[in-house]
Amino acid sequence: MPKLMTSIVVVLGLAFGCQGGRNFYAQRADSLRLAADLRIQFNRAADASNRAVMADTDDASIAFARDAEKALQLVDSDVEALMPMLRSLSFSQEIQFLEDFGKHFAQYRELDRTILALAVENTNLKAQDLAFGPARKAADNFRDSLGSVALKIPPRDRCKIEGLIAKAVLAVREIQVLYAPHIAEPSDAAMTYMEQEMANLDITARGTVASLTEIVPRDVRPALSIALSALDRFKDFSRQIVALSRRNTNVRSLKLSLQNKPALTAACDDSLRALQDLLTKEDIKATR
């Protein structure tokens, strides 16, 4: 009887040992799979975030930002599943690398939220669209309205009128030239300087139209009123362009992506690579 009981205990022990072994091997394999997926999803998130910053339309920026957030959610899920598995396996070094990743990832995610929030606003791109669309059209209407004034002046009196018209049109064109550097400029002080230049040029254009009003025949003055209305529309678009450019969301998001994000991205990926390497070595040792 004692011999029989001993045999039963040995058999049960072997059975449970095999079961435990199979569970160990399965957990180790699952942990390696999760670590690999974790690294893939993190790099997908980083890539989608970069694409959101570089996108040239609102729709594209929003779509890439959503892709980045989805990948980050998968990163969270993988970490949540992987950590208890590593603890169950008593993989202390692997746990340390995953904890290191968690610390870096928390900083990365906070920065990435800021970057994506700025990127999807696209204020610099919107300012650019206004500059090359409605503002340009208003400036062209101003030029054309003043051109019609010149045609109504007798040739003998046209020289002085054309000189004033050229001065007014040039002032508006110089404002347009300042749009591009203002939109690209990261410095508030530099933008303020350009805005003052724009204001002075607007004063020049309006002063010139006022001078024209004093010297053209009365029947020509309605055409000058049309030109002045076009100049008012142009100034309104200029205000919008400056306001959007001042927010500088594309410039700021790009700066953060190029200067602040790479170090955090590398730190996260280094931790994940080290984790993968250790788990791979554990797998090799166990299969020998």
Q: What is the C-alpha radius of gyration, as a whole number of Å?
A: 34 Å
Chain-averaged pLDDT: 90
Number of helices: 9
How helical, in percent, are the residues?
A: over 70%
Largest sheet: none
- Principal-axis shape equals rod-shaped
Q: Tell me the number of strands.
A: 0
**Low-confidence parts, pLDDT < 50 over ≥5 residues?**
4-22
Strand content is under 5%
What is the first-to-last residue Cα distance? 40 Å
Query: In the residues, how many domains can be counted?
Result: 2
User: What is the N-to-C succession of helices and strands?
Assistant: HHHHHHHHH
Structural class: mainly alpha
Could you please describe the fold and organization of this structure?
It is a single chain. With 288 residues, this protein is mostly helical. It has two domains: 23-121 and 252-287, no CATH class; 124-249, de novo design (two linked rop proteins) (Up-down Bundle). The protein contains nine helices and no strands. It is rod-shaped. The two termini are 40 Å apart.
